Amino acid sequence: MAKTTDTAPSNADEPKRSLFSRKPKAGKPNKVKKPSRIKQMVDIFKMTRRHDPLITWLMLGAFLGLILVSLVVTLLVSPGNWITGLLVGIPLGVLGALLIMSRRAERAAYSQIEGKPGAAGAALSSLKRGWIFDEQPAAVNPRTQDVVFRAIGKPGIVLVTEGPSARVKSLVDAERRRLSRILPNVTITVIETGKGEGQTSIAKVTKKMNKLKGELTKVEVSTVNKRIASLGNKLPIPKGIDPNKARPDRKAARGR
C-alpha cells in the first residue's frame, strides 16, 4: 500500500497550558493592552518639550522649590526634624511638577491645532459637565470652509465661529435668526476664534465660555437642546423645483 505524505497537525507550536488554566474562548480577539499611566505621562512630556523647551526647567524648579519650602517650614516649626520636611516636600514637588506639565501640555496641544479646520470644535470637546456640544458644525460655508459650532449651557446658546470676522458674519446672522424664531428669550453669545482684533484664541475659548453668567437651569438647558434638535439640518432645495407640485414621469416609468 502506498503511504500518504500527509501527517497530522502538530501541537508543538501551540502554547502549553497548565492543568487548571482556562481554555481561551474561540472567536474572541485578543484585547489590546493599554499603555501604562507612566508611559502616557512620558509621551505627554516628550510632546510638550518639542513645543516648549522650558518645560524641563520649569518642572525641575517647581519640584525643588516646593521641597525647599517644605524643609524651611518644617525646620521653623520643629528644628532638626528635616526628614519630615522631605517626606512632605517630595510628594508636593511631584504634584507641582505634574501640574505645570499639564498646563504646558494643554497649551502645546492647542498651539498645534491653532488655525487648522475644526480647531474650534476640538476646543469645545474639552468642555466640562453642564454643556451640550454638537460635534458637527451648526453652519458651514463649503466654498470658504468657514464654520459655526454651537454649544448649549446655563449661559444660553454660544456660537463659536471659525474664519475671518467679516466673512463668517453672514453665517452667524443666519444661525442667530434661525434660533431666535424658536427661542426668542434665550441669550445667544458669539465667540470668534482667531488671533485678530476682537477674536479669542483657541486655548481661551472654553475659559471664556465658563466665565459667562448663568441664566438657565439644568432642565431648561435640556429643553433648549430638544427644541433645537427638533429643527434638524434640512438641506436647501434647488431653485425652480416645487416638491408639492412635482409629478413622476409615467412614460419614463413604462420605458417609453
UniProtKB/TrEMBL annotation:
Claim: Magnesium is one of the keywords in the record: no
Region (Disordered) residue spans: 1-33, 233-256
Biased composition (Basic and acidic residues): 242-256
Source organism superkingdom: Bacteria
Chain intervals with Polar residues compositional bias: 1-10
Residues annotated as transmembrane: 54-76, 82-101
Amino acid composition bias (Basic residues), ranges on this chain: 19-33
Alphabetic keyword roster: Membrane, Transmembrane, Transmembrane helix
Alphabetized Pfam families for the sequence: DUF4191
Protein name: DUF4191 domain-containing protein
Organism classification: Bacteria, Bacillati, Actinomycetota, Actinomycetes, Micrococcales
